[in-house]
Amino acid sequence: MALLYEKKGKIAYITINRPQAMNAFDPETFQELSNALIDFRDDDNLGAGIVTGAGEKAFCAGADIKTIIPYMAEHALYWQKVPTIMRGLELYKPLIAAVNGLALGGGLELALACDIRVASENARFGVPEVTLGLIPGWGGTQRLPRCVPWATAAEMLFTGKPISAQDAYRIGLVNRVVPPAELMPTAEAIARDILKVAPLAVKAAKQAMLRGTSVSLEEGLKIEADLEAPLFASEDLAEGRKAFTEKRKPEFKGR
After folding, report:
1. How many other CB atoms are there within 10 angstroms of residue 18's CB atom?
2. Which one from 56, 109, 155, 219 is the annotated catalytic residue?
3. Options 2.60.40.3930, 1.20.58.410, 3.40.50.12780, 1.10.12.10; which CATH number does 198-245 get?
4. For strand 102-104 and strand 58-60, is the pairing parallel, antiparallel, or unpaired?
5. Of 28, 74, 129, 239, catalytic
6. Which pLDDT value is given to residue 177?
7. pLDDT for 86-108, tens place per residue?
8. Which residues contact 63 (CB under 8 A, 6 or more apart)?
9. Is 109 a residue of the active site?
10. Which of 85-89, 101-105, 164-168, 193-197 has the lowest mean pLDDT?
């Protein structure tokens, strides 16, 4: 299969499985990614997800140029019509990118659309589309300048040159850089930390972040208030308060 989708407890694992092609996207893989993300969104038993690539060389090297350019010529705007976290799919559950090598073009755009990014020491990040005569089309020109300093994003986008995992950490593109053997354990540890807290609150926090980034501060504060209000009536808040006073770990139910 071009993409592996597994569920272990409350964690979803999405693995791009084309190591022979540096885990580049072809039409089949892109559609399978969309299907997996939609299932993750709709499965109430899942609370966090991890996205990675098969093997140790690449997270995702972007679009498979051999297959995608001809396909796009025959199917206009195909990539905009298939909903993913890069474009077209609203997802308020946390996603962690475990970047295990090259994250180029659409691969970096996939990582940027995740909430938390952990990189192996051999990871490299870049948007080389200008070297082909294109620009990033899955959010790279929009998310990268929102994630790192403008001048840094401009240099990456205008030259197409990649940066190392260490430089990605320095500019705030990734949360952590770890040895390859520690990549998945680190991503899983973060996922488990997320699963320990109230799921309704996590969902509301992510929704507030996503909706607030495109509006003014005043509008963002209104969004925050609107999302917080229902939480006061939740069973999770009552359990959280009770557990705090009883000095024990809370048992949240997501309601």
Report:
1. 22
2. 109
3. 1.10.12.10
4. parallel
5. 129
6. 98
7. 898 999 999 999 999 999 999 99
8. 24, 25, 105, 106
9. yes
10. 85-89
Residue with tokens 């659409």: 106
Residue 101 CA to residue 180 CA, distance in Å, equals: 9
From the candidate CATH numbers 3.60.10.10, 3.50.50.60, 2.40.340.10, 3.90.226.10, the one assigned to the domain spanning 3-195: 3.90.226.10
Mean pLDDT confidence for 7-23: 95
Q: What's the CA dihedral at 92, 93, 94, 95 to 10 degrees?
A: -100
Burial class (CB in 10 A: 0-12, 13-18, 19+), 42: exposed
d(CA 232, CA 206): 17
Span 197-207, pLDDT tens digits:
999 999 999 99
Structure tokens at 96: 């962690």
Give the model's confidence band at 79: pLDDT under 50 very low, under 70 low, under 90 confident, else very high.
Answer: low
Strand, coil or helix: what is 156?
helix
Model confidence pTM above 0.90: yes
Contact 96, 129 (CB under 8 A): no
Tell whether the torsion through CA atoms of 166, 169, 173 and 179 is positive or negative: positive
Instruction: State yes or no: is 6 an active-site residue.
Output: no
Spans of all domains in the chain: 3-195, 198-245
